[in-house]
């Protein structure tokens, strides 16, 4: 009998496994939204979704360069936004509540031409306004860079056009949710409330896409559900005041941006920050500067003058050469990525649902 330390018999050699073929890398759905209102849209191939809308798909060829991620990115409220999805085939999906009812829109850009399909009662409304959504009412040629940083970003981002959705509440309500809290907290509240009280997006929309609630449903949300979503009473009350006069606020989409902001600010709790964030999207306002922002003045001051502690007054002074195009200038500054080094802690998160 062999001893306990006897050498074990050698195992027969295993045949070599054949090498697996290398799989092509697939474009992934966007997970992050870049500061400056850009959503990364994968460069996909064929959209791969059969036409199911009434009639033929709509096509629109923009008069110049167009970047879907830059144009539609500001409409996305965080990576989990139930009303917005950028998919691996290069399509952007939006679920909207139109004057004709809920609708789902899918847009893809192929060889310089935008192709769109839509589903639901609001399909025709969305398709008829495809050019405006993609910036047809915008005039990017009117913009003249006045600073080297802005000029460099302007050259690198020729596809930036300002969207005009023609819908006020869908931008107003999430902007109210973003008042005085971190973006993560606001995105979470929007996601939870839309998924619970909205309705599934019509048509073959990606999984878990929802249309935001109608004004009546917003009014019926119990106080404890606002609390669970992390929305304090001040912001919830502002939203309730806004949806009570929803038709009057939606009229602002047809006004000049300045008059539209004035209309929105008649509602207590809606100030210049919220109204600017809204009309930038609903009205395509190129000069609507976001004042009252925690970070923007410092970013603009640092980018244009090397000043880390600029306030709103100083920001407006630095943006004065761009009057008429100040919002567009701020977009280019944010997209440049030039931001001051962080010297103070981030804004603390407050989960009121645990209080």
Task: Output the strand order for the largest sheet.
Answer: 3-7-6-5-4
Main sheet record: 5 strands, antiparallel
The CATH topology name reads Endonuclease III, domain 1
Helix count, per DSSP? Answer: 15
Q: CATH first level: which class?
A: Mainly Alpha
What is the average of the pLDDT values? 88
In which range does the helix fraction lie?
A: 25-40%
Low-confidence stretches: 1-34
Strand fraction equals 5-15%
* Count of discrete domains: 1
Distance between the termini: 74 Å
Which class do the helix and strand fractions yield? alpha+beta
Give the radius of gyration: 24 Å
- Under CATH, the homologous superfamily reads Hypothetical protein, domain 2
The CATH architecture category equals Orthogonal Bundle
User: Could you give the count of β-strands?
Assistant: 9
- What characteristic shape results from the CA principal axes? globular
- Order of helical and strand elements: EEEHEEEEHHHHHEEHHHHHHHHH
């Amino acid at each position: 009998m062999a001893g306990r330390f006897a050498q074990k018999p050698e195992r027969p050699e295993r045949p070599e496994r054949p090498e697996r073929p290398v799989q092509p890398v697939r474009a992934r759905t966007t997970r992050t939204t870049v500061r400056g209102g850009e959503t990364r849209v994968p460069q996909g191939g064929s959209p791969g979704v059969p036409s199911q809308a009434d009639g033929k798909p709509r096509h629109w060829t923009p008069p110049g360069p167009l970047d879907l991620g830059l144009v539609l990115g500001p409409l996305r409220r965080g990576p989990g936004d139930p009303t917005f999805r950028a998919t691996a085939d290069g399509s952007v999906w939006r679920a909207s509540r139109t004057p004709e009812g809920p609708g789902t829109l899918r847009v893809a850009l192929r060889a310089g031409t935008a192709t769109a399909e839509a589903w639901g009662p609001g399909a025709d409304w969305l398709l008829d306004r495809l050019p405006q959504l993609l910036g047809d009412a915008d005039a990017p040629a009117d913009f003249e860079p006045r600073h080297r940083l802005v000029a460099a970003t302007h050259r690198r981002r020729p596809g930036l056009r300002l969207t005009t959705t023609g819908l006020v509440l869908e931008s107003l309500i999430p902007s109210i949710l973003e008042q005085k809290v971190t973006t993560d907290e606001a995105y979470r509240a929007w996601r939870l409330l839309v998924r619970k009280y909205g309705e599934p997006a019509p048509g073959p929309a990606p999984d878990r896409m929802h249309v935001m609630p109608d004004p009546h449903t917003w009014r019926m949300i119990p106080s404890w559900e606002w609390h669970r979503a992390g929305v304090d009473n001040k912001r919830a009350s502002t939203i309730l005041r806004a949806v009570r006069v929803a038709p009057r606020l939606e009229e602002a989409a047809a006004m000049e941006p300045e008059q539209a902001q004035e209309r929105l600010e008649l509602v207590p709790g809606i100030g210049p920050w919220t109204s600017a964030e809204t009309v930038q999207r609903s009205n395509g306002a190129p000069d609507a500067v976001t004042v009252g922002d925690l970070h923007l003045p410092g970013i603009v001051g640092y980018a244009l003058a090397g000043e880390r502690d600029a306030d709103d007054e100083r920001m407006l002074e630095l943006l004065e050469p761009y009057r008429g195009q100040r919002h567009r200038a701020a977009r280019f500054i944010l997209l440049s990525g030039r931001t001051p080094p962080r010297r103070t802690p981030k804004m603390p998160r407050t989960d009121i649902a645990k209080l």
